Amino acid sequence: MGNFRNLVAIVTGGARGIGAATALKLAKGGAKVAIFDRNTETAEETLAKIKDAGSEGIALEVDVTNRQQIEKEMETVVDQWGKIDILVNNAGILKDSMIDNLSEEDWEQVIDVNLKGSFLCAQAAQKYMKKQNYGKIVMVSSQAAVGSLGRVNYSSAKAGVQGMTKALSMELGPFGINVNAVAPGFIDTDMSEVSRISAKMRGIDDFDEFKKSFIKNNPIQRVGRPEDVANVITFLASDEAEYVTGQVIYVSGRPVI
């Protein structure tokens, strides 16, 4: 486990799933953790676990597509703890549909939350990181970035996150800021329930059978857990990854081409 003592971390979409697992792991490593999420009720539940782990935390209602909210609550974090060391851009949504039925609204929502939201949060956080010549930004992309049936909006957004990661790593490296990304595969979270829609697009009505088929064909014979992704995120957020930047690490239990 990385040593995050005296460090301040922000995790977007930190109320549940990968975000909650990451927030808790950072807290157990000694970090002070701010959860940015629209779901304040669930965020408070995760916050209670952070405090049970003996760390400090706050839960703030933030829509990552809203620049004013982001900047305001980052100021709240700095006012309370004096700095921002780590940003985990995890907030994301799915709106799966084949292109014939994909609405412009669903296209824009997915691009706005997954891609624009990551940009706005990174842009706001890096200003504080530059002042201290230190920072770690970890983006959450997806295996879907290489293409996924019925997810042209999501695949486009997550591919964009990978491009942003590489570009920002070049721009921010001279300021002591590392920028990397993880790209999860099939992870057992609330969002994976949307995979039921994807299964139906493939003509599979029985989601449990779809899941069994995935496990059978995966070299690591199971579905991923949020903690699997959190382990890689926290490595990239640690000083152990000081010489790692501009990288996309797939956490999928299988090779990705």
Give keywords.
single chain; NADP; seven-stranded parallel sheet; NAD(P)-bd_dom_sf; 257 residues; globular; Sc_DH/Rdtase_CS; 15% strand; oxidoreductase; alpha/beta; SDR_fam; Rossmann fold; 7 strands
Rg (C-alpha, Å): 18 Å
CATH class annotation: Alpha Beta
CATH topology: Rossmann fold
Instruction: Determine the mean pLDDT.
Output: 92
The N- and C-terminal alpha carbons lie at a distance of 29 Å
Count of DSSP-assigned helices: 8
Taken as a percent bin, the fraction of beta residues is 5-15%
Task: Output the CATH homologous superfamily.
Answer: NAD(P)-binding Rossmann-like Domain
**Helical residue percent band:** 40-55%
Global outline: globular
- Could you state the order of secondary-structure elements as H and E? EHEHEHEHEHEHHHE
Which strand order do you get reading across the main beta sheet?
3-2-1-4-5-6-7
Which architecture per CATH?
Answer: 3-Layer(aba) Sandwich
The poorly predicted ranges are: none
Can you describe this structure?
With 257 residues, the chain is of the alpha/beta class. It has a single domain, classed as NAD(P)-binding Rossmann-like Domain (Rossmann fold), CATH 3.40.50.720. The protein is 46% helix and 15% strand. The protein contains 8 helices and 7 strands; from the N terminus they run βαβαβαβαβαβαααβ. It has helices at 17-28, 40-52, 67-81, 104-132, 152-172, 195-201, 207-217, 226-236; strands at residues 8-12, 32-37, 57-61, 86-89, 135-140, 177-184, 248-251. Strands 3-2-1-4-5-6-7 form a 7-stranded parallel sheet, sandwiched between helices. α4 (104-132) links the parallel β4 and β5. The longest helix has 29 residues, at 104-132. The chain is globular, with a radius of gyration of 18 Å. One of its GO terms (molecular function) is oxidoreductase activity, acting on the CH-OH group of donors, NAD or NADP as acceptor. Keywords: NADP, Oxidoreductase. It comes from Pueribacillus theae. One of its GO terms (biological process) is fatty acid elongation. This is Beta-ketoacyl-ACP reductase.
